[in-house]
């Protein structure tokens, strides 16, 4: 499974490099086709998809060198071309299920990890599972939407609706985490939490030397490292009182939660903007 994933990443990296050889018009045409095919690839074989995309790119580069542009070579309806190509890629439902299980585990880990900053923590497995499910459905919905609209620029109204929907879904997920309780409660003692933190820091220290972190993995890695360090500081006598001080704004407490949510949304938008800016350059 890991070898196949590495092969997929290698093909995608080669694709990224070869696209630099395209003219702007040909690159825009090809990248629309690429976004559509990847966005519609929920149940298909990633390896064969990336091989197909790379083959298309190589054919387009050859055509460009012969003086033929993408629209002439592939036709004026790239969506139809992409749809026909997707039909040739066999489905792999098992891989899709396995990927979603890993994604759910990752989301539960990300949502649970900050609770290590509290001693004698109790976390709600049902609560985390529900919030993770909302996050996963939102991610797949976003991918489907991006793929479906790869060949049409969304209007300002559509973009506004997407942003509002994203904020609502994020608010629902946060509300579930804060207020929804289930009977699947698991309690960790202070000693167990401390042991988890130490093991996590050891793994974090070793991981960069044995595994190359991808662009997707780096934010998760640094977030986890940051939380683990905060969790460790809770157990130091010099910093314990500071981290255990309860923040209470009285009747304005709700405003504090709103500010935290908006800060999280702002950080997410900033990361997305930096990624888009880097991609453009």
Automatic annotation (TrEMBL):
The keyword Transit peptide does not apply. Residues 1-28 form a coiled coil. Keywords: Coiled coil, Membrane, Transmembrane, Transmembrane helix. The chain crosses the membrane at residues 96-113, 125-147, 159-180, 192-213, 220-238, 254-275. The keyword Acyltransferase does not apply. It comes from the Bacteria. PANTHER family: MEMBRANE PROTEIN, MEMBRANE PROTEIN-RELATED. This is DUF1129 family protein.
